[in-house]
Amino acid sequence: MAGTAEERARYWQYEELPGVDLLRARYIRKEFVRHTHEHFVIAAITEGMEVFHHRGSDQYAGAGALALVNPDTPHTGRAGVPEGWRYGAVYPAPGLVAEIAAETTHIRGTPGFVSPVLDDPYAVALVHQVLRAADEGNALAADTLLRVVVTRLLRLNGGALPRREVRTAGARTAARARAVLEERMADPPSLQKLAADLGSSPFALLRAFRDAYGMPPHAWLTDARVRRARRLLDAGTPPAQAAVAVGFTDQSHLSRHFSRIVGVPPGAYQRERKNVQDARSRLFLPSAAWYDRQLSQTRTYTPTAEESPTPPSYGTPSESGSPSDSPGSPSG
After folding, report:
1. Which residues pair with 66 in a beta bridge?
2. CA quadruple 276, 277, 278, 284: dihedral positive or negative?
3. CA 242, CA 229: separation in Å to the nearest integer?
4. DSSP letters for 72-122
5. What is the Cα–Cα distance from 45 to 86, expressed in whole angstroms?
6. Percent of residues in the chain assigned helix, strand, coil, to nearest 5
7. How close are the terminal C-alpha atoms of the chain, in Å?
8. Digit-coded pLDDT (tens) for 46-63
9. What is the band of 168 on the pLDDT scale with cuts at 50, 70, 90?
């Protein structure tokens, strides 16, 4: 299977789900470097297995499980079996998750996920129903099902995130170093120069930065550059210009790191953003095909009325949509 299957991915937005990114992918040889997300990661595995390093240990998410990562939490990603893994993911903004938690749970404080892996085939099916509804342009279904799955996951695996407080001198130094790197992203100083300017030693700064942000300064800077490049691409900046603006040498340099963090190349990412902008002037209505598919896939599982006013199908959802790039490309 691993020798004949193709890697493919689509990373997009649906204009009726503001603040939410969507992904559908099949990866075999793909390896995500250590990185973070500004949004929550809710990844629903339907085939194979994903392994990701999270808070000091490897986590394994197989078919029927979800990989759950809180915002600004360093993690990696790779295949756990030779045939790779297939999954769909939603990336809701922290504000949206907080809004849902306040309305449907008793969590006090900033809500988040307690365990990085949760076995819940029904929630996996819900995530894929969100993606399918977005594909079909069914805003009511997409928004409803997204809120249902976030509520379910918070009730099963939610809690208040610990507050991050800068208490030590090392943590304060790390925060100052981060501010310098953000300001000088396109022209960062060396570790020795940065440490000297902050009144520290290179290794002391390195240890403090790792403790505070989960990765060394150079890895954090690459992650931050990709984040800023995404904002520029969202605003319509050509990939070549975005690459130089954030400190990469050229577009291929940006593409290499962008693909290893986001999952698709910057060109494919920006095309999907443009599609969303173009679609805002068009009216989306639920299609007959969408309703037919819901009826044909409905099974016996019946969630409570509080959980889901429109129960989705159970089982492995079908994958629709075309890949963002040619088969076998390192796009994803």
Report:
1. 44, 118
2. positive
3. 6
4. T--EEEEESSTT-EEEEEEEE-HHHHHHHHHHH----SSEEESSSEEE-HH
5. 6
6. 40, 20, 40
7. 17
8. 999 999 999 999 999 999
9. confident
